Amino acid sequence: MLYELHYRGFAGVDDRWEWNPGLISLRAQIEEAFEQALREAAGPVPSVEPSSSEVAQALFALAASEAGPSVSKFIQRKANAAQAREFLILKSIYQLKEADPHTWAIPKLQGRAKAAMVEIQADEYGNGHLPRMHSELFRQTMRGMGLRDDFGAYIDRIPAVTLAAVNMISFFGMHRRHRGAITGHLALYEMTSSIPQAAYARGFRRLGYGSAVTDYFDEHVEADAVHEQIAGRDLAGGLAEDEPELVPGILFGAQAAAAVDALAGAQYLDAWEAGSSALLAGAGAGAGAVA
């Protein structure tokens, strides 16, 4: 909620609370503990030469090493319609504002890294065409599945690990000292996106849904295949060459992204494999939609 004051805010909440000193102080205290937890989850970072090729190679190796249960394979092969709707609800807390948290990094970057970030984000925002904005495509997917498409509609059903994954991006993006981490985070996201997105699309088609639902995933298959090279070599790699001291931060951001997303995915799959819901219990906005 403290971060959301810097995005859309809340109905009935004065916008001046965004920079309230008391709330900023509280957020700083929470962030200190949050960063410690992220570093523990990420583990030690390897020593990598500050060159575009070496940093990109390290990031691609991390992306390739991701193992364990796969949410995308579950959606592709096994998920029923109720589980597919839950999956969308879980994703909605980020996807309905997709790109916004990473965009905080743009004014904190310079040169080649900044140009690469802008190129990636321009695609995320549909290159100026509202219907092609990725967040708008996700809204279309939500509607196609009979779900509400207003941001935060299902917040009371979202588990803590999912919120942590989203808060991590805002934390990295809003702090200049973490400009390395936010680039590493985005690079890993782009490197691990294209193949899973294709699996999600196949899963929703298996369940009988058409392009109104699958357009979002199909768009990412092509876009992210291009973005992964830009993110690895020009964004993260370019930043490493311009500011070599940020290489550990780049790798920390990528490893934290992998670790937290793995925790979230394992929690979802454990619930679904047990025949349970991956959402929090309660009668909130999502109760009827996912029954």
CATH topology of the largest domain: Heme Oxygenase, Chain A
- Distance from first to last alpha carbon: 27 Å
Largest β-sheet summary: none
> Which percent band covers the strand fraction?
under 5%
At CATH level 2, the architecture of the largest domain is Up-down Bundle
Radius of gyration: 19 Å
Overall geometry comes to globular
Q: Segments where pLDDT lies below 50 for 5+ residues?
A: 284-291
Q: What structural category do the secondary elements indicate?
A: mainly alpha
The helicity comes to 55-70%
CATH C-level class of the largest domain is Mainly Alpha
Instruction: Encode the helix/strand succession as letters.
Output: HHHHHHHHHHHH
Q: Can you count the beta strands?
A: 0
Mean pLDDT: 94
Number of domains: 2
Number of helices, counting only DSSP H or I runs of 4 residues or more? 12
The CATH homologous superfamily name of the largest domain equals Heme oxygenase-like
